[in-house]
Amino acid sequence: IVDFERMGVLRPQAGFDHAVHYGLYNAMMCSIAISLAAREKGRKYILLLASFFLDLVALILANSRGSLFAFGVVILYRIINNRSIKLKTARKAIRIILIVLCCFSVLICIKPDILQYVFGVLFSVYASIFNTDAMNSITNYGTNVGGIVSRLAQFSGIIWVLVRRPFLGMGPEATSNGLISYINIYTNDWYVTDTFDVGYIEIFCTYGIVGSMAYILLFGLIIKFIFSSRISKMDNCGLQSLFRCVFITYFIGILSVDIRGTSKVFWVLFALLLSWYSTIKKNKGILGGRK
Q: Under 8 Å CB-to-CB from 13, ≥6 apart: which residues?
C-alpha cells in the first residue's frame, strides 16, 4: 500500500487497476465536463459544474503528474485558442475555473491541510518536469520521485525491441514474460522491467513497427477529425471542441501513462467520435456533395 501513497494520502483508483489510470480518466472527464459546461445554462450548467469539480478533486487525489500536466495544457489551450471557441464561451470557461477555485478556497478554510496537499501535488508536477531534485523537498511523497527521468529512460525499450523483434514486437504479455528491458541511465546497464509507463513505448514494444503504423493511422484519423476546419463549419453543436480537448488530454497523458489501463475509455470515446462524425455526414452531407 505504501507504493500507492503520496504525502500520506492513499491514491484512489476506483474501478481501475492503478491510480495513474484513474487520474488520466478523470483528466479526460474534466475536459469533457468543462467543455459541456461552457455551452450550457441553468440547471445543466450547475450539474456539469459540480461534475467538473468532483472530477478535478479525484484527479488531484489520484496524483498522476502526467495527467495533471495534460489537463493543465488543455486549460491553457481553451483560454488561448479563440478560433475553436467563441470569446463569450471562453469567458464562461474562465468563470467556471474561478468558481471551482472559490470552492477549493472554502474547503481550505474548513481544513487548512488541504492547501498544503494541493500545493504539494502541483509542485510535484513542476518539479518532475523542470527540476527533479526539487522532488526531494516534498515530505513523504512516495517511491517514484524521479518522474520524467524514469519515463525518458524507458524510451531505450524501443532500441531493445528494434534489435530483437522490430516488425511484430514482443506481444501483449511482454512485460509479464520478462521480454522487455530498459537501460539504467546511471550505470548504462540493461535491466528487465515488468511495466510500461509510457503509452507510445508500450505500443511499439508490444506491436512493433507494423502495429505502430496502425496506431499512427488511427491517431492521425482522430487528429484529422478534431482539427478539420471543414468539419468545424458543419458542427452546429460545438462538439468538435469537446473531442479536441479530450483527445489532446489523452495524447499528452499517455506520455506518462500506459494505454492498457485506459483502453476501454479510449475506445468508447473513439466510438462516440465516429458516431458524431457519421451524424454530421448524414445531416450536412459534407462528403460526396450530398445535401
A: 4, 19, 21, 22, 62
**How far apart (Å, rounded) are the C-alpha atoms in residues 175 and 192?**
8
Count of alpha carbons within 13 Å of 103, Cβ hemisphere only? Answer: 14
Say how many Å lie between the first and final Cα of the chain, rounded. 59
**Alpha-carbon Rg for the chain in angstroms:** 21
**What residues contact residue 274 under an 8 Å CB cut-off, 6+ apart?**
none
CB 22 within 8 A of CB 14: yes
pLDDT in tens, the chain (291 residues): 345 788 778 888 888 888 999 999 999 999 998 888 877 777 888 888 888 888 998 999 998 989 999 999 998 887 777 554 555 555 666 676 777 778 777 777 777 777 788 888 888 888 887 766 777 777 777 666 666 777 888 999 999 999 999 999 999 888 988 999 999 887 889 999 988 999 999 999 999 999 999 999 999 999 999 998 888 888 777 788 899 999 999 999 999 999 988 898 999 999 999 998 888 887 765 444 444
- DSSP letter assigned to residue 290: -
Eight-state DSSP code of residue 255: T
Please give the grid coordinates belonging to residue 214. Answer: 496502425
Residue 225 to residue 287: CA distance in whole angstroms: 13
